[in-house]
Amino acid sequence: MLFEQIAFDHELSRGIETYNDKVGRWWHGQSINASHRYAYRNIADFIRASYSRPPGLIVDYACGAGNLMSRLRRRFPESRLIGVDGSAFLLGLARTRLARQGRSALSRTTLIESTLPNFELGGVAADLVVFVFPNIVPCSRGENGNSWARRLSRRDLEMARALARLRDPENGRDREEQAATFASLLKDRLVSRNMRGILKRGGICIRAEYGNAPRDEFPRLELLRTEFEEGSLCHEVDGRTSDQWFRVMASRYFRSGVMEDVYHQSKDESDRTGGYFITVLKAL
User: Fold this and answer.
1) What separation, in Å, do the N-terminal and C-terminal C-alpha atoms of the chain show?
2) Residues 244-266: pLDDT tens digits?
3) What is the pTM (predicted TM-score) of this model?
4) 2-142+191-233+242-283: CATH architecture
5) What is the b/e burial string over 138-158, where b = at least 16 CB atoms within 10 angstroms of the residue's CB?
């Protein structure tokens, strides 16, 4: 199978180019297996049940091959959709998938090829942004956490440093691990800031992310980092506060074989079981 031939650390270090090559092909194969098909259908049904009236504009952030977007197109035929992704290969598959639904599906859907985050997308004023099974490389080769930091506030940077220094009671943290955690927090925080800029005030962001357990069972440190990354952290950590962009409205957890995506990359046996959790966030 293709994923066995991929050295993920090497491939992801190539930046966005790998999504038109090995990782893009791997992801396409994963996204159409039985576990993913069921998960996308479940997520689309969850979103449809959350709305009494169709949202006017939906943005599928990192839409990939359009697996969720095509399902949302069926459930919200009158809504306008924008799909954004950095892979021309995956967007081509998305366009083909939408074309099978007829001209009206394509005419009410805009596909944008762009690395993410993209702050030129600000001002879109979407009613709904969806962010599902993300695996974003948000920078070109040669960029690092310093370039991401320039777009975040001093309060956010101080909070990220504090969260990177914290450790689980049973595990120490050396400087290299702290630096990697700090960079990861900044990367994911920046993506959330970008999505908040796309949404209108009061709009909804729905995220579906891999997890080994329901959100309310997360260890305290994992939950703090998750809330910081998604922009919903609303209390102090070591006397520090961060900018809050969202409020958590709901969370649901589903066991699913999609967790194998994580195992393929980590080779950690603990990542073979789990599923995904859906989080509903309201833009403040």
Assistant:
1) 44
2) 999 999 999 999 999 999 888 88
3) 0.92
4) 3-Layer(aba) Sandwich (3.40)
5) bbeeeeebeebbeebeeebbb
Strand partners, 132: 208
CA distances from 99 to 43, 65, 70, 103 (A): 22, 13, 10, 7
Map out the domains of the chain as residue ranges.
2-142+191-233+242-283
d(CA 257, CA 261): 8
Question: How many residues would you count in the chain?
Answer: 284
Query: Mean pLDDT per 10-residue run, the chain (284 residues)?
Result: 61 80 90 97 98 96 96 96 96 96 92 91 89 69 55 93 79 73 91 95 97 94 96 94 97 96 85 94 98
Identity at 125, one-letter amino acid code: A
Give CA–CA dist 238/257, Å, rounded: 37
- Sheet of 199-211: strand order equals 109-113, 80-85, 57-61, 126-132, 199-211, 275-283, 246-255
Residue 264 neighbours by CB distance under 10 Å = 18
133's tokens: 């099974």
The rounded distance, in Å, linking the Cα atoms of 79 and 273 is 36
User: Of 100, 34, 17, which is closest to residue 66 (Cα–Cα)?
Assistant: 100
For residues 231 and 245, the answer to whether their CB atoms sit within 8 Å is: yes
Residue 101, φ and ψ in degrees, nearest 5: -90, -5
Distance CA 60, CA 132 (A): 8
